[in-house]
Sequence to fold (78 residues):
Amino acid sequence: MKRPSLAALLVAALPFVGLCFTVSLWDRVQPMVLGLPFNLFWLMAWIVLTSVCLRIVYRIETRRESADRGGKSGGGTR
Fold:
């Protein structure tokens, strides 16, 4: 098993940073966003964004794996 690329690690770290280190920015009830207090909206938005980030990581790693496999075999086919 290979180590993940730096790009994949950085994208995967975004949800962690967005949820853990930005509390001082979103720790308030007002304004209301889509009928939800802002802090609840922020947390729910990161649930969706985490899935998006992990999909991006998956695509980065599968492209990297196929490029590595294609380069070693002398030319990959799609």
The mean pLDDT is 85. The radius of gyration is 18 Å. The first strand starts at residue 32 and ends at 33. Helices lie at 6-20, 23-26, 38-72.
